[in-house]
C-alpha cells in the first residue's frame, strides 16, 4: 500500500456504506466499547457565537490499528466536517474523509441502535420533532429498527414541515401526517425523536403516553435544550452514548443530576446495554436515549468506509507527506 493517505469524498463514502451497514458497524464497535476494547476521547467544543460552535471528537478501536478525530465548525446550521484517520502502528496519516454524510449516518445509526434496543417492539407510529438536515436520516434509522406505519412531523415552520412531508412520501412507505401543533404530534406516540436546535425545553412529561421511547438527539451543546426535567422521573431506563460528554455538554442532564450526582450510577451507556444484552423492561413507563456525539461512533463509520474504499482502483490519494525542517531565521 502506498504511504500516501487516502482522500475519501462524500460520494465515495456514501457509495460504500448504507444506513443499515452503518447501524451494524456501530453495534459491533459499541460492543467492543462495552467490553473495554474501544476508547473514547472526551468531546471538546468552543462556542464561537451565541448558537454556533466548533467541535472535536476522537477515539481508538482496539484491533483496527487505527485511531482518529472528527472536527468541524457549525455556523448557522452549516458545516463541512472531516475525519482524519491515523495508524496506531507508526502514527502515519492514513485517510482524510469528507464526513458530513458520515456524521448524518453516525447520528442516525446511533438513533437506530437506541431504538432497536429500547423502543417497544410494536412501536410503528413515530413522531419526529425537527425538520433540518438530520430529519430524513433519523426517520430512516427508526424505520430500519421499527418498520413504520405512521409518521407525524412537527416543527415551528409550516414550510419546513411541508417540505419534509414531501421528502418522506418520496422515500418511505408509511402514512405521513403534517402536525399543526406539538400536542397533536406527540399524542399517543410510542416513538419520538427530537432533533432540533432549540434553546428552550418544549417536550413535557404530560405530553408523553406510557410506553413511549424518546431519542433526544438535537441538543449537543449546553446552550440547547429539548425536554423538561419531569421526563426523567418516569424513565425506567436512561441511556446515553457517552457519560462524560453528556455530563459536560447536556443542559438537561446537568440540571437534573446537579443535586444528586449518585444518580449517574443508574445511567447506562449504549455500549453497556449492548454488551450486557439489556432491552426495554416489561411494562416500562418511558425510556430515554440521549446522544451527544462521540468519537467511537464516528470512528466506527470511518474505519468501515476506509476498509471498503481502500481496495478501489479509483481511490484518491492526498500528497505523500515529506517532512521538512522548519525555517529558524
- Work out the radius of gyration: 20 Å
Poorly predicted residue ranges: none
CATH class of the largest domain: Alpha Beta
Shape: globular
Spatial sequence of strands, sheet with the most strands: 9-8-7-10-11-14-12-13
User: On the 0-100 scale, what is the average pLDDT?
Assistant: 93
Structural description of this entry:
The protein is of the alpha/beta class. The protein has helices at residues 10-16, 19-34, 100-118, 135-145, 158-171, 182-186, 243-249, 251-257, 270-275, 295-310, and strands at 6-8, 38-47, 53-61, 66-74, 82-87, 93-98, 125-129, 150-154, 175-178, 191-194, 213-216, 235-240, 267-269, 286-290, 316-317. The protein has two domains: 6-103 and 295-317, ornithine cyclodeaminase, domain 1; 111-290, Rossmann fold. It has ten helices and 15 strands. The strands form two sheets. An eight-stranded parallel sheet has the order 9-8-7-10-11-14-12-13. Strand 4 (66-74) and strand 5 form a beta hairpin. Helix 2 crosses helix 3 (100-118), helix 2 packs across helix 10 and helix 3 packs across helix 10.
Offer a concise description of the structure.
With 329 residues, the chain is an alpha/beta fold. The chain contains ten helices and 15 strands. It has helices spanning 10-16, 19-34, 100-118, 135-145, 158-171, 182-186, 243-249, 251-257, 270-275, 295-310, and strands at 6-8, 38-47, 53-61, 66-74, 82-87, 93-98, 125-129, 150-154, 175-178, 191-194, 213-216, 235-240, 267-269, 286-290, 316-317.
Amino acid at each position: 500500500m502506498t504511504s500516501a493517505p487516502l482522500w475519501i469524498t462524500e460520494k465515495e463514502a456514501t457509495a460504500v456504506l448504507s444506513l443499515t451497514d452503518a447501524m451494524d458497524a456501530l453495534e459491533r464497535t459499541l460492543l467492543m466499547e462495552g467490553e473495554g476494547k474501544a476508547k473514547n476521547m472526551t468531546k471538546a467544543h468552543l462556542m464561537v457565537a451565541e448558537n454556533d460552535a466548533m467541535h472535536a471528537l476522537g477515539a481508538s478501536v482496539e484491533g483496527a490499528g487505527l485511531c482518529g478525530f472528527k472536527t468541524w465548525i457549525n455556523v448557522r446550521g452549516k458545516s463541512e466536517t472531516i475525519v482524519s484517520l491515523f495508524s496506531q502502528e507508526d502514527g502515519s496519516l492514513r485517510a482524510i474523509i469528507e464526513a458530513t454524510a458520515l456524521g448524518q449516518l453516525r447520528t442516525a445509526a446511533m438513533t437506530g441502535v437506541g431504538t432497536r434496543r429500547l423502543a417497544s417492539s410494536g412501536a410503528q407510529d413515530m413522531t419526529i420533532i425537527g425538520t433540518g438536515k438530520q430529519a430524513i436520516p433519523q426517520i430512516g434509522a427508526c424505520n430500519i429498527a421499527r418498520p413504520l406505519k405512521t409518521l407525524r412531523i412537527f416543527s415551528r415552520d409550516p414550510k419546513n414541515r411541508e417540505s419534509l412531508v414531501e421528502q418522506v412520501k418520496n422515500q418511505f412507505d408509511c402514512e405521513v401526517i403534517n402536525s399543526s401543533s406539538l400536542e397533536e404530534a406527540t399524542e399517543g406516540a410510542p416513538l419520538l425523536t427530537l432533533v432540533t436546535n432549540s434553546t428552550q425545553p418544549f417536550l413535557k412529561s404530560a405530553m408523553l403516553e406510557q410506553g413511549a421511547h424518546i431519542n433526544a438527539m438535537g441538543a449537543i451543546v449546553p446552550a440547547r435544550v429539548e425536554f423538561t426535567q419531569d421526563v426523567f422521573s418516569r424513565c425506567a431506563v436512561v441511556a446515553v452514548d457517552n457519560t462524560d460528554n453528556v455530563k459536560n455538554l447536556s443542559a438537561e442532564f446537568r440540571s437534573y443530576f446537579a443535586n444528586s450526582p449518585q444518580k449517574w450510577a443508574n445511567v447506562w451507556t449504549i455500549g453497556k446495554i449492548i454488551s450486557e444484552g439489556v432491552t426495554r423492561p416489561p411494562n416500562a413507563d418511558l425510556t430515554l436515549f440521549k446522544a451527544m456525539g462521540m468519537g467511537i461512533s464516528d470512528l466506527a463509520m470511518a474505519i468501515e468506509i476506509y476498509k471498503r474504499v481502500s481496495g478501489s482502483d479509483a481511490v484518491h490519494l492526498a500528497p505523500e507527506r515529506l517532512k521538512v525542517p522548519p525555517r529558524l531565521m
